[in-house]
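User: Predict the complex with adenosine-5'-triphosphate.
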Amino acid sequence: MSELTMEKLVALCKARGFIYPGSEIYGGLANTWDYGNLGVELKNNVKNAWWKKFIRENPYNVGIDCAILMNPQTWVASGHLGGFSDPLMDCRECHERFRADQLIEQYIKEHESDASGENEKKQTESPVDSWSKEEMKQYIDEKGIVCPSCGKKNFTDIREFNLMFKTFQGVTEDAKNTVYLRPETAQGIFVNFKNVQRTSRKKIPFGIGQIGKSFRNEITPGNFIFRIREFEQMELEFFCEPDTDLKWFAYWKQFCIDWLQNLGIKEDEMRVRDHSAEELSFYSKATTDIEFMFPFGWGELWGIADRTDYDLTQHQETANEDLSYFDDQTREKYIPYVIEPSLGADRVTLAFLCNAYDEEQLPDGETRTVLHFHPEIAPVKIGVLPLSKKLTEEAEKVYAELSRFYNCEYDDRGNIGKRYRRQDEIGTPYCVTYDFESQEDGMVTVRERDSMEQERIKITDLQGYFQQKFSY
Ligand code: ATP
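Assistant: Here is the predicted structure with adenosine-5'-triphosphate placed in the model:
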């Protein structure tokens, strides 16, 4: 199998209708991407798989869907207005802009990695993003780190750059009307904690999940849809009793690992990285990143954090509203602790694309490109292929029946082998071929994508057959 590169993946995504560059006819808009006819199905399937396991099937959790624009006081309370920033540095020579922490991390990777892994270990114990601006500047000067674009050593001082997008509500563009596009979906959950608890009649422990758009004015977006400025998050805020938080933290960590692995992510493609004491946010008792091996290296996929009672306490103080929970059995009143597993829908979609991609050498010497998607997330579930255009009427009936339950594609163009290859390349798990014999025996050939094995199934049995194949 040849190595997957981002170039290959981006090209396949564009050619087959997964993801196109945004606003392409106008020359594009940097780092924006549009999901095409297959991409929207894939991402919706990923979001539905999350919603099914985290919300619908889970006895503890319920869902919510909040507004993107929130009262700006939300961002005062959450700390985003004061502290949601990246350390930014400009090159005075070529005017490129960089994140100081990323420059240093890259330098360490290239210059200070040693065979024993000791230096990388040291870095994890005191990760660069926990250093002060002064410490970063001093390191850059001492090591003589150069501008990656022009090779010169003439950087400005490091400034903190707030990542929130600003806009105005109403007709006047002044500070009074400034609102922010939410940088995370979590805060909509916290401000509705009391509402949801009351209307759902849930008792602690319980969780509230949300899927929705978030916006961050990232300084260094890139790597396709890995880091973008407009993205979707799937977040759960799980509220529990203060002393039970670490138990629930372990529970949700495992739940997230299982979710990924059940959908086909392999053990050697992911790693679970616990944050060291230095790396933890000041309010967090424990944080773990689940990372995925992308073609460009390891990258964070899922952040799971024990956020203690920080967010609810902050909102309680800022809004001057009681956000405590009263336990009617123990007669105790307390602010619940929160475990937050937070996953990017676009980022995990990219991980599933990388995980699925394969170029297989076939016994006849040909190579087939195939996406081995888990059936649950495959954008097209069944390809319906009449062997000849003379069979259109009957094959269309099979298609119409299966389309009531699954996203199907009808393809009658080209020879059957080419049609199979095309379905392989978009990750369709099953193809149903209607041939001349079908008219006689009422059966069709079902071909499975990965094994390429074929079996004859009665048309009247197809629904039950696929129901079992697609159970998740
Ligand atoms: P990173 O270190 O990559 O910037 P983060 O630690 O800031 O991520 P969180 O604030 O924990 O990320 O967000 C939770 C999840 O949201 C991330 O694990 C990731 O999957 C997703 N995410 C965050 N920022 C982006 C982005 N710019 N583009 C796509 N997904 C994102």
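The pocket of adenosine-5'-triphosphate is lined by residues 216, 218, 227-228, 231, 233, 300-303, 342-344, 346-347 (CB under 6 Å).
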